[in-house]
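pasting for ref
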Amino acid sequence: MRTSNDTSAHAVLAPVDAATLSGLEVDDGFEAYADGNPTRIGSMLIEAAESSTSRVAIALGPARHIVGFAIARSPDRSSRLYTAVSAVELTAFEVARLERRKGVFGAVFRALLRRDLEESIVFSVADPELRLRGETARSFRERLETVLGSAGFAPMPTDEPELHAHRDSTLFVRVGRGVPLPDVEDFYARLRAPLDVSVAISLRAPVMRNLIRADLERNGFRVRSVSAGGRDEGADILVTDDGGTGGRLTVRLNGEVEPLWRGDVLWYPVALLETLAPDLRRELIKRRDRHA
């Protein structure tokens, strides 16, 4: 565990484990998360610390109560924003009411990522459901622009449904100085409107047909037809488990260990179906950008 002190003399711990969190009290000055309930906030932090994909940083006040926190995690592999190297999601952060404007958030955020800070693309979605009492959507956004802006974030436009579940949601992004340009370009490409790509699904297993259809539609694809073995020559992509081809691209499900492109045919392992949609989208974005 790493311990540091910011200029306001708050002890900052990062990454902090569940055992340490369980022995600490949460200040009663929080407002946005869990309705400000200290017990529920403590449980939220412990749950995040127990996850292998998350990390937690906290700030302790003079009474050794938790007065600030931040949680980061890698995007889920099934998310369109999943990238193997650079993307990190700041999922939750707050500073207790009486400790604000003292540099606590900046200290906690820097400790959260430490050496990875300048090698990462960090994004956070400002959900208007987390507004403080009396805040309007506009004042909420302005407050977040100030808080996150102090750590190098900037608001970023996006039409991505995954990030825009609420019309007043705002995406904030911070790009580290050491992030390779191809990673930056790939990330920004994902923020554009969904690809206008139609898909025909021809699979024998009904459960698999339904799962793949839901995942493709969630990732911005337009499913044109679903069948147990038919052909839809008008679709851009055919997803099948037999030897046929169709459309401009064909995804053929099989027992391979790794995905493999052979011309316009993608051989894809059934065991990795949860990542088919984001992998296919990445390939289509690359192809689109090559011909732009």
